[in-house]
Structure formats: structure tokens, C-alpha cells
């Protein structure tokens, strides 16, 4: 299948912009998406009903109201945010995904027009994707992916957030390495950076209904029925009718937050203009989601802009984060940790990897020596240097330790930066170069893996886990590390403390990697993981661990028995059947329905709940009723559900590699150093 010839479907939005990134690789909306593709008539009927309701008069409009299927409870969980802090992420229910899809389909034009019109300070907002095709890219890595993606199809677009074009910058790093950034550093004398405190958690959904009024306070009770009222309803519906906060995770949330944050931008812009202060002449403001960058010709003016932001944002119940307020004269002088990290990374790169000139010399030497086989294969250079790495590894580890000890508060950024550099190196130019030379020893490869594991172990968050697994995937393309299971097992044993140090949601795919590689987590750490599973009560984590536990029949049955008890307990806790989707317990049914491992008795209990979900439609069908019955039909009839129980169904590592590469901001790692410690939602 050639990705260049696949036309984008509106339903792709369910795959690209709804799921959070930080999720077990075995959970997917893919099969539900496929089901909906085959229900085009029903999907069209839902769209038509939503459009019709949208176009009704104010007194008649009931868009996204009235159906018991609209209100759903997300599955909330935490990931690492810092060494001693976490961030809550929300996974939306499948019917919430359909509801958002219907909203986007109905209001896409209005949404994009508003975002473009109000983007006075926006560094990141959604624009039309006029082509709606998967674009061909000439870079060799992308070509390599396209060749490999024939095996996986549209799965590679899941969780990418690429349904719309994101302009003008897809990341802060791209902005801070742009020509525009350097001009700003030359043009102005003063700089302030701040962000909104707990931005998404602090957004009150009813404030969207205030946006059309002339005065915020006068419109608090205004029951408007336009797009802003629909946003208010959607945000409450997908978060179990909660009006306090926007769920964190989906790309959709960033789009909707942008509408609110742009309105604050517009108010600040107008207030300053009325004072004779002109954007682009006296100052410049740039905002990337919740991060705000203020450049001004004087400290006094920069403080004034900050004051106006604080004043306007309070009207919408948002607060600036004083703990993250940064003030500087420009241009910036890099902090010591930045310079030292850059120097260390460059040193590691020069020791471990051949430069382009060195790669060219390798090819010339091989061609000169005529080291080719009879089939005249294309001669490739190799990235990784020779077998002397083991002599320098300990020295590099010591230097890394010194860097971490000196700048412990920056450990997250330092580790992410190094892991990004490694991924960038091994993924580059896959068509024209190899990672290792042909006769590389297993000792060299596993010495390199040990070094990677060591760096990763200092900050094993979700993104670093994905980068680490992606590097393993590239290495496995050339050298089947799975054939060296005893050496892999030794590495897992050596760094087993990761499994007790990390948040389980951050390392869930590392646990699944152990299953694919047929290696075992040490018993002590297994016991700690099970304790964490009990504490988190997360069905996706339990399902993922059950897949891992299948290495031992006895252990698998032990874990399965505990899971089945949890399923029964959660089903018993569902009392009000008419509001079943607002129960967190429904997630046990979503995850374990049609699992090949649960007993017939447990599946029977799940089937009873599913039967209660069916809506008897009499008279005029509503979009929510159609949506609910489609979901029930999927649960009843589709053999593939939301969790992929067979880890070998698709290449687990390859899937991670596709997604990690497309999200990586480390492709030009030296350029992206400056602001990598400034994270946005």
C-alpha cells in the first residue's frame, strides 16, 4: 500500500487527534475506526442530524444534549512530569471520540476561521489541510518508513495529531532555532517568559459561553446556543459532565484551549494598541499553547505587557505561573548546564559515531579493497565506530555522572537530549548507511545497549522509553538482538531498578518489549509492579501486564484470576444503568470485552452489561442514539476490540518506531537545545 495514494477520510480524526500519546501500544481505536468505515450510512445519518440541529433556531437547538450516550467518563492516569511530580492524562471513551468527530465535522470551517483570524500571538494553531493526502517526503528515512508501512497501513497515523496542519511552528524548539527568534534577540533589549498555572485544569468550560458577550460578567448566565455553547457541552460531556477543566491528552484539547487563549491574546493586543503600543514595533508577544514569550524595547514595557496578561486572564479564571516566570536581557547567554550538555553530547557523538566525512572514507576504502560479494550489493558506510567503544564507555559514564550531579535539576532535559541524539544518529539515512559494520561483534552491540540503558535509567519517562525502544528497533534491523536473549536478560536484570523507580504508565511498553523479546522481569520487581497495578486500578495496565505474564502458564493464570475478580467487582459497582458511561468501571468492559483469556462466565457478565446499553429508538432518532447503538453493535459483533491481545499481530517495535520518529523534536538536536526544558501541554 503506497501512502501517497491514500486519500484522507474525515473519520481519520478519530485516529489522529483523540488518543493521548502516552498509552500502551496495544490499546487502539483502529478496529473501532474500521468498523465505522463500514457503517458509512449510519455515520452520515449522525452527521446530517448534527448539521440539522446546528442550523436550527436558538429555541430549537439541542446539539449534544438529550442523549444518555453523550456523557462519558475518561480513564485518567498519571505520567512523569518531573523527578518528583506527575501529570494527569485522560483517555477518552470511544463514544466521546465519535462526539468530537461530529463536532469537528459540523464546525470545522468556523473553528479554523476563528483560529486563523485571532492568531495575533499564536505560535501553534490549526489550519486547513487542503490536500488531505499522505504527502511524499524525499528524505530517505521517510522513504524507508513508507516501504515498511506497507505492512501496517493506517496504523502509523494513530496518535499523530496530524489531521490539520499546525502552523507556524509545530514545537517551541522550531521557534527558538528559527531566524525569527534570532532577529528578536537582536531587535529587543528585554525578555519575559511565563505560562499559565495548571492551564487545562483551570479552564472553566462555561467561559466559552462568555466569549461572545461584550462583558464577561454580564454574560455568565447567557444561555447562548452557538458554537461556543456546543464547545461547553462537548467539554463537559467527554469529562463526565464536569465543567472544571479540560481533559489533557487529546490534540483536540489543544485546539479548543487555543480558542480561549487566543481570546486573551486579542484582548491584550487591543488594550496595548489603545495605549499606542504597537505589536511588531514596540514589542512582540508569542504564545505556544500555555507558554508566553514577551520581547520588548524596555523592561518597563515588558512588565506592562505581563501585567495586561495577568489582568485579562483573571477574567477567564486563569492565572499566570509566578514560579515559572523568567526575566532576561537579550540576547541570551546560555546557562552553564546547556553549554556543558552540548559539549558532552558532541563528545559522545564523536566517540561513538562516524561523521559524514568518515563515512565517505569508509566507502572509498571498501571500494578500493573491492570488498563486495558476487551480487554486487551497494556498498554502505556505517554510523557506529569500531570495537574500541568498550574502552571508553566507563569514561563516558563518569562524565555523564559529573554532568548530572552538577545539574541535577535539569536531569529530565539532559537525558531526553542524549536519548534524542542517539535516536537521531541511528535513524538517519537508513537507505544509504548501516548502523554497524558487517562483522560487528555482539560484545560491541550490547556494550552500546548497556550505555543506552544507563542513560535512560536516570529518567525513564514515557518519551524516553519510546526513544529507547525505537533505537532497539533500528538495531534489530541489522542485528537480531532477540537471538541473544541471555544477554538481553542480563541487561534487564542489571537495570531492574527501573521497574520500581518509574511510573508504570511511563514504562508499560518496556514491559511489553520484555514479552516480545522473551525475557523476564526479575521476581522482586514483578511483585512491585503488581502492587502498583492494584494501587492504580487501571484496566489497560492490567491487560498489558497479562500479555507480559504469559511467559509462564502458572504466573499467567495467577494474574488472570486477579483480573477476573476485578472485572466482576467493577461490574457489580455499576448501579445506575441509565448513566453507565459516566462510571469509571465501564473501562474494564471496554478493555476486556472479547479477551481470548477471560472465562465464559466473566464474558457473560460483560455481555449482560453490553445488552443493557442498547437504546430502543422509537420515533425520531437522535445522533446520540445512533452513536450509542453503533458502539453496542461493535462491542457485540466485532472480533477485534480496543486491546490487541496478540503482541505478534504486528511488529510491536516497528509501530513504536514510526510514531516516535514522527513526533521527535530531536532531528536537529544541536539546534533544539535552547528551550527543550520548557515543556508545553
Helical segment count: 27
State which percent range the strand residues make up. Answer: 5-15%
Helix/strand-derived class?
Answer: alpha+beta
- What distance separates the N and C termini? 34 Å
Strand arrangement in the largest pleated sheet: 6-7-5-8
Low-pLDDT stretches: 1-6, 131-145, 148-152, 214-225, 665-680
Helix content: 40-55%
- CA-atom Rg in angstroms: 26 Å
What best-fitting shape do the alpha-carbon axes yield?
globular
Short summary of the structure?
The protein has 681 residues and is of the alpha+beta class. It is 52% helix and 7% strand.
Give an account of the 3D structure.
It is a single chain. The chain contains 27 helices and ten strands. The chain is an alpha+beta fold. The protein is 52% helix and 7% strand. α4 packs parallel to α10 and α22 runs antiparallel to α23. The N terminus and C terminus are likely disordered. The longest helix has 24 residues. The strands form four sheets. It has a four-stranded antiparallel beta sheet with strand order 6-7-5-8, covered by helices on one side. Strands 1-2 form a two-stranded antiparallel ribbon. The protein starts with 11 loop residues before the first helix and ends in an 18-residue tail after the last helix.
Q: Which keywords apply here?
A:
disordered N terminus, alpha+beta, two-stranded antiparallel ribbon, 681 residues, four-stranded antiparallel β-sheet, 27 helices
What's the layout of helices and strands?
Elements: H1 12-16, H2 30-37, H3 40-55, E1 75-82, E2 85-91, H4 94-117, E3 124-127, H5 140-148, E4 165-168, H6 172-176, H7 179-187, E5 190-195, H8 199-202, H9 227-237, H10 251-274, E6 283-288, E7 291-296, H11 299-315, E8 326-329, H12 336-352, H13 356-369, E9 381-382, H14 389-406, H15 411-427, E10 433-434, H16 442-457, H17 462-478, H18 485-494, H19 498-501, H20 504-517, H21 523-536, H22 539-549, H23 553-572, H24 586-592, H25 600-613, H26 623-637, H27 652-663
Parallel strand pairs: 9-10
Antiparallel strand pairs: 1-2, 3-4, 5-7, 5-8, 6-7
